[in-house]
Specification:
Strand content: 5-15%
Number of strands: 2
Strand order of the largest sheet: 1-2
Number of helices: 6
Largest sheet: 2 strands, antiparallel
Distance between the termini: 47 Å
Radius of gyration: 22 Å
Order of helices and strands: HHHHEEHH
Shape: globular
C-alpha cells in the first residue's frame, strides 16, 4: 500500500518565532481570529456611536477628546497621533462635531495658529449617559482576560500597529513591483 504525503499550503511567514514545527497554521489561525475580533470591535464601536447618534469615527474622536483632556491640551495633531489617523481627516470630522455642538475649538492664546479642542457640556452629557451601556458591554467583551493578559495585550497592540504600519508600505511596494513584472 502506497502512502501519500499530505500537501501543505505554502508558508505565509518564515520567521521561526511565528512557526510551530515549521508550520504556519497557528499563525494563520491567529490572523483570522484577529480579523474576526477587529470586525466585532468595530461593530461594538459603531453600536456605541449609533446610540449617541454619531458615525463611528466621530464617536471615536469625541471619546479621545474626553480621555486626552486629563493629560493637557488636546489638539487635532494629538488626536490624529493618538488614533493614528491623518490630521486632515481628524480636522474634517472634528468640524462636524463642532457643528453638532459637541466640541469647541479655541485658539491658543500663545500661538494663534494652534487650536485646542474641548468637549461641550452636551458632549460630556452624551458620553456620560452612554457609559453605563459601555461598562456592561466592555466587561462582557473583554471578560475572558485576566489582569495579566490585559496588561500583555495592552503592551502588544501598539507594537502590532507599528509593525503593521511598516508592513503596509512594503506590501504596496511589492504589489507595484509584481504588477510591473506581470505586464
Amino acid at each position: 500500500m502506497a502512502t501519500t504525503k499530505k500537501k501543505h499550503a505554502p508558508l505565509t511567514v518564515t520567521r521561526p518565532e511565528l512557526l510551530i514545527d515549521g508550520d504556519d497554521a497557528a499563525f494563520r489561525e491567529m490572523v483570522h481570529a484577529a480579523l474576526a475580533f477587529a470586525a466585532r470591535l468595530t461593530a461594538v464601536r459603531d453600536g456605541y456611536a449609533e446610540l449617541v447618534g454619531l458615525p463611528g469615527p466621530q464617536y471615536t474622536i469625541l471619546v479621545s477628546i474626553q480621555h486626552l483632556k486629563d493629560d493637557g491640551r488636546v489638539s487635532v495633531k494629538r488626536i490624529a497621533d493618538h488614533l493614528r489617523l491623518s490630521g486632515t481627516f481628524v480636522t474634517t470630522e472634528t468640524n462636524k462635531l463642532v457643528q453638532k455642538g459637541l466640541v469647541l475649538k479655541q485658539k491658543d492664546p500663545n500661538d494663534g495658529r494652534r487650536v485646542s479642542l474641548k468637549m461641550t457640556s452636551e458632549g460630556d452629557d452624551l458620553l456620560r449617559r452612554l457609559s453605563e451601556v459601555q461598562q456592561e458591554v466592555n466587561d462582557t467583551h473583554f471578560g475572558s482576560l485576566s489582569a495579566e493578559e490585559f496588561q500583555q495585550l495592552r503592551k502588544i497592540m501598539p507594537e502590532l500597529v507599528d509593525s503593521t504600519d511598516a508592513a503596509l508600505p512594503l506590501l504596496e511596494h511589492l504589489t507595484a513591483k509584481r504588477a510591473l513584472k506581470s505586464r
